[in-house]
Amino acid sequence: MSKLDELLFGAKQVASIATRKTGEAVEVSKLKMQASQVNAMMQSTYERIGNLVYEQEKTGTDNSDLIAVCIKEQDGLIVELNEINTKISDIKRGVTCQRCSAVNPYESTYCSKCGANLKKPKTQPQKGDGTSNPEDSTEE
């Protein structure tokens, strides 16, 4: 292989890695936007629950059915947020905190947001298998 061929091959590899990383960054950005929207819906649902409880206590109106509907909606939003955070974690090759859903680096033992002990997946990413490469990591 000539020097020019080696240079072209190296350039193609760099371009391939850059393309993959760009795609990952775009996907993470889209997922973070979805997570933000779900968080906003969760905040709104919490406020509705609070208003219904307040009205029930203040006026004696029985809002228990409406409160139950809101709680069921909130539970669905929590599941949706956890799924989004798991996808982000998979793309970033990190670990999602079970308590607060923050994405932490795979090497972390404790959550950087809430301090909870992180449970690691049973199989650790192996160097060279395409799932974890320190050279490919980017800080956000």
List keywords for this structure.
2 strands, 4% strand, 2 domains, two-stranded antiparallel ribbon, mainly alpha, disordered C terminus, 140 residues, 2 helices, Helix Hairpins
CATH domain class name of the largest domain? Mainly Alpha
Number of strands: 2
β-strand percent reads under 5%
**CATH level 3 topology of the largest domain:** Helix Hairpins
Low-confidence residue ranges? 124-140
Class inferred from helices and paired strands: mainly alpha
Can you summarize the main beta sheet? 2 strands, antiparallel
The strands making up the biggest β-sheet line up spatially as 1-2
Work out the count of structural domains.
Answer: 2
Helix content: 55-70%
The Rg value, from CA coordinates, equals 22 Å
What is the CATH architecture assignment of the largest domain?
Orthogonal Bundle
- H/E element order: HHEE
**DSSP helical segment count:** 2
Round the mean pLDDT to the nearest integer and report it.
82
Q: Report, as a whole number of angstroms, the end-to-end distance.
A: 38 Å
| Mass-distribution shape | elongated
Present the secondary structure layout.
Elements: H1 3-59, H2 64-92, E1 94-96, E2 103-105
Task: Please describe what this structure looks like.
With 140 residues, the chain is mainly alpha-helical. It contains 2 helices and 2 strands; from the N terminus they run ααββ. It has 2 domains: 13-92, Helix Hairpins; 94-126, no CATH class. The chain has helices at 3-59, 64-92; strands spanning 94-96, 103-105. It has a two-stranded antiparallel sheet with strand order 1-2. α1 packs antiparallel against α2 (64-92). The longest helix has 57 residues, at 3-59. Residues 124-140 have low confidence and may be disordered.
